[in-house]
Amino acid sequence: MPAKAPKVLNNPKARHDYHIEETFEAGISLTGTEVKSLRAGRGSIREAFVRVDRNFEAWLHNAHFDEYEQGNRENHEPRRNRKLLLNKAELRKLFNLISIKGCTVIPLSLYWKNGRVKLEIGAGKGKAKTDKRQDLKKKESDREMKRATMARFKGR
């Protein structure tokens, strides 16, 4: 089984702020300078979101890929909308999910797969503050249990 591809950009706030119900892997249409900038690890998808228009085309909005330092006048616009590459069935499914009130599609991570840039996107609903608190409490209790078991095994 091949190892999981290393992530270039990550969006940790996505799983913290949303209940992710379904994930998709999408290709992304990029220019040469955007790819070079991503290879250097310079960009952000924290404020980004995905929209599917009526023509069943998915677009990544508000993602920021820094300009490539050695780029010339052909350099890219850092915050332009980028087209996502999905098959028709996935696009229809995303369009139906977005049409549900309160459902949002956000990028989770950006990574390399076989020399190509892939974007993992997730469809989900926003969490309330109480849900976020419960998640933090659960994470803290899991950490404490892990520490306790590790201390018990070290004592042997």
Task: Write up what this structure looks like.
This protein has helices spanning 12-17, 32-39, 88-99, 129-154; strands at 7-10, 18-28, 43-44, 49-52, 58-61, 64-65, 82-85, 103-113, 116-126. The chain is α+β, with helices and mostly antiparallel strands. The chain contains 4 helices and 9 strands, in the order βαβαβββββαββα. The mean pLDDT is 81.
Walk me through the topology:
Elements: E1 7-10, H1 12-17, E2 18-28, H2 32-39, E3 43-44, E4 49-52, E5 58-61, E6 64-65, E7 82-85, H3 88-99, E8 103-113, E9 116-126, H4 129-154
Antiparallel strand pairs: 1-8, 2-7, 2-9, 3-6, 4-5, 5-7, 8-9
State the shape: globular
Percent in strands: 25-35%
Uncertain stretches of 5 or more adjacent residues: none
- Helix/strand-derived class? alpha+beta
Helical residue percent band: 25-40%
The mean pLDDT is 81
What series of H and E elements makes up the topology? EHEHEEEEEHEEH
Oligomer kind = single chain
How many E-type strands?
9
Keywords:
two-stranded antiparallel ribbon; seven-stranded antiparallel sheet; globular; alpha+beta; 156 residues
Quick structural summary:
The protein has helices at 12-17, 32-39, 88-99, 129-154; strands at residues 7-10, 18-28, 43-44, 49-52, 58-61, 64-65, 82-85, 103-113, 116-126. The protein is of the alpha+beta class and 156 residues long.
